Each structure stands twice: as C-alpha cells, then as structure tokens.
C-alpha cells in the first residue's frame, strides 16, 4: 500500500477534472485518477497513477483500495443531462450505482486507514425543477431546499445522490454498533460551467460554452435555446476554487451538506451579445430544440448562495463582464490562435 495519503479523482478527463488536477498537482497529496478515457498527455504528467476504467467496475475499485491510502475523493464521473435523457437507465447506472460504488469505496478506505475520507460530489441546478416558466420566473433566486422536483433523469440522479452522500456522511449503518461512518461528504450544486480550455459534451447548458468556442474558431453556431433562456453560469476557475474552498473548510463551519454557488445569470441573448462584441464575425443563429429548451425552462434562473458565502467564503472572482473580458476571451483567443 502507498504510504502517502492520496487523492482519487473520478471522471478526471472531464472539464472539472482538468481544472482540479491543475490546482491539486504539486500539492502534498499524490493524485490518482479513474476515467473511461485516457488522460490527455499534458494532464497525465501531473498525476501519480492513472486507472483507465469504469466506476461500475468494483474489482478495479478494490484494487485501488488495496494499493492506495485515499483521504480525499472527487467523484466527478457522470453522464450529463441531455445525454442522460437519451439513455435514462444507463444514466441511472452510471450516476447512481457509480456514486454508491465510490461511497462504499470511501467508507472502506476510511475503515482501513482510520481517518475520515473527505468526499466531494458535484451536484447541479438540475436537482431543481419548475413545472412552468412562470413559476421559474416568479421564484427568482432559489434556496437549497426549495423547488426540488427535477424533471430529468440526471437531475433525479443528482438529488438522490445528495441524499446518499448525506446518509453515508451522517447516518451510516445507524443500527449497527460496530460501524462508524468514515465519510465527510461535501456537495456543491453547480450552475452551467464555462471553460476556456475544454468544451463539455452531453450537457444542456452547453449552448453558452459552445457558442463562445465556435465563434473563436470562426465556425457558425446554431443555439438550441430561445434568446430569453436564462440559467446561472460560472467561469471554470471560480468553480474549481469553490470546490477547493469547500473541501478545505473546517467541518464545524459547515451548516449544510449541499451548497448553491452563484456568479452570474445571463440570458442566451446576453451571452450572444458579448460573444459578438469579442468576435464581430461570429455567425450565431437560433434553432430551438424543444426538449432541451424545456429542460432549461425547468432549471432556476438564478440561485441564492448565501449559505456558501457565510459558511466558507464563496466569492467568485468573475462576474459576467469579467468572466468574458479577463478569462474567457483572452484564453480562448490564445487557444485557437
Ligand atoms: N451543466 C450540466 C448539464 O447541462 C448540468 O449540471 O448537464
């Protein structure tokens, strides 16, 4: 067994994984990763050991358990919301059974090395659900415990896994006398995330990042939601910073298991406007996909993140203007130059 307390990141080759590995590499804890796809070579260089495989492969998880002492888990692997609507049963398998496997893994790790395992779980604004656009508009900035009637398989999976994490963290085997919960479960409900370095796949908030990246590449883009569609978004560096802040906050400061975090909440039209200002030749049109539009209409227009601000100092660096001016546009320009 490795003598070092390690970090395990699942779904490491995805968007959040890239940013997290960048920030955590060079720190005191070696990183091990698990993803279906091999890591890009510049990312692979930053990790101690890369496992290529599925979170549904319990034998692989047992191997990692036998070989490494893991103190922190970032469980990022999931099928995103649009993709999950095409294969709901598969989404349930990956998103729910996969998360259960990781929680069991973390519990066994804690039992074997005797320390609590801090477990980060990325939930989503998809956990919320509004039956009508009018109710969404009237609700304004939603609090964590309101409007939790998801309309997607992905949202239902996320909401249930929040509960699973709370169970493993606070009530594990409560009727058994010989078992103590070993997991310190912490969760953020992310809004749509926009990275200058990677493009998401299979999400419903993808229209914003896709529009920006297409404009930077000089490619036409057909936006799949109406111009007035509004959900919260956040620049990827702020999302990664929030994860690290929450993971390193003293446990006694945390009044909740699940936190909203906000930054800015533009309409698709407002995103298009700043994209056109930066790339005057951008060819953006709109062709509404009714199903994806209805998912966006069911998600909140913005979130109340007062608890995250109070408990662990959530403070995004980038508002809407700064996200584009100082992060997205310059970094994307360089990327496609
Ligand atoms: N951004 C994700 C998606 O669109 C939601 O968490 O699926």
Question: What does this protein look like?
Answer:
The chain has 337 residues and is α/β, with parallel strands linked by helices. The protein folds into two domains: 5-192 and 234-260, NAD(P)-binding Rossmann-like Domain (Rossmann fold), CATH 3.40.50; 194-233 and 264-301 and 319-335, UDP-galactose 4-epimerase, domain 1. It is 45% helix and 17% strand. It is built from 13 helices and 13 strands. It has helices at residues 15-24, 41-44, 58-67, 81-86, 88-113, 133-139, 153-171, 207-217, 236-248, 268-278, 290-298, 306-312, 320-336, and strands spanning 5-10, 31-35, 49-52, 69-75, 117-124, 141-142, 183-190, 192-194, 221-223, 233-235, 258-260, 284-286, 302-303. It has a seven-stranded parallel β-sheet, sandwiched between helices. Strand 2, helix 2 and strand 3 form a beta-alpha-beta unit. The termini are far apart. The model has no long low-confidence stretch (mean pLDDT 96). Residues 80-81, 124, 126, 154, 190, 192, 203-205 line the site of serine (SER). The site of serine (SER) has 10 residues, from loops.
Overall strand count: 13
Query: What is the CATH domain class of the largest domain?
Result: Alpha Beta
Poorly predicted parts = none
CATH-assigned homologous superfamily of the largest domain: NAD(P)-binding Rossmann-like Domain
Widest β-sheet, arrangement of strands: 3-2-1-4-5-7-11
Class by alpha and beta content: alpha/beta
Ligands, ions, cofactors: serine
N/C terminus separation: 45 Å
CATH architecture name of the largest domain = 3-Layer(aba) Sandwich
- Quaternary form: single chain
Query: Mind telling me the C-alpha Rg?
Result: 20 Å
Main sheet attributes: strand count, strand direction, barrel closure: 7 strands, parallel
CATH topology of the largest domain: Rossmann fold
Fraction in helix: 40-55%
- The amount of beta strand, in percent, is 15-25%
Sketch the topology as an H/E string, one letter per element. EHEHEHEHHEHEHEEHEEHEHEHEHH
Tally the helices: what do you get? Answer: 13
- What is the residue-mean pLDDT, rounded to a whole number? 96
General shape? globular
Our count of domains comes out at: 2
């Amino acid at each position: 067994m490795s003598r070092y307390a390690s970090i395990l990141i699942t779904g490491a080759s995805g968007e959040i994984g890239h940013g997290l590995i960048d920030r955590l590499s060079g720190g005191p804890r070696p990183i091990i990763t698990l993803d279906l796809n091999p890591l890009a070579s510049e990312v692979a260089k930053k990790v101690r050991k890369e496992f290529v495989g599925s979170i549904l492969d319990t034998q692989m998880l047992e191997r990692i358990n036998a070989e490494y002492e893991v103190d922190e888990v970032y469980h990022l692997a999931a099928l995103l919301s649009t993709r999950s609507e095409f294969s709901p049963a598969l989404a349930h398998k990956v998103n729910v059974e996969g998360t259960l496997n990781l929680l069991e893994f973390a519990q066994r790790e804690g039992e074997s090395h005797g320390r609590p395992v801090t477990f980060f779980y990325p939930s989503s604004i998809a956990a919320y659900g509004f039956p009508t656009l009018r109710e969404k508009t009237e609700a304004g900035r939603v609090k964590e415990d309101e409007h939790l009637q998801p309309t997607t398989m992905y949202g239902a999976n996320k909401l249930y896994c929040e509960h699973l994490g709370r169970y493993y963290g606070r009530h594990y085997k409560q009727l058994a006398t010989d078992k103590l919960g070993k997991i310190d479960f912490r969760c953020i409900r992310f809004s749509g995330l926009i990275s200058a370095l990677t493009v998401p796949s299979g999400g419903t908030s993808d229209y914003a990042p896709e529009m920006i990246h297409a404009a930077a590449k000089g490619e036409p883009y057909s936006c799949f939601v109406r111009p007035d569609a509004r959900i919260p978004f956040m620049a990827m560096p702020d999302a990664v910073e929030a994860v690290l802040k929450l993971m390193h906050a003293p446990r006694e400061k945390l009044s909740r298991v699940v936190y909203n975090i906000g930054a800015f909440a533009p309409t698709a039209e407002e995103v298009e406007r700043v994209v056109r200002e930066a790339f005057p030749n951008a060819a953006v049109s709109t062709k509404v996909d009714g199903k994806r539009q209805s998912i966006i209409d069911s998600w909140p227009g913005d979130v109340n993140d007062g608890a995250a601000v109070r408990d662990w100092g959530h403070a995004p660096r980038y508002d809407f203007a700064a996200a584009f001016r100082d992060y997205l546009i310059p970094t994307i320009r360089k990327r496609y130059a």
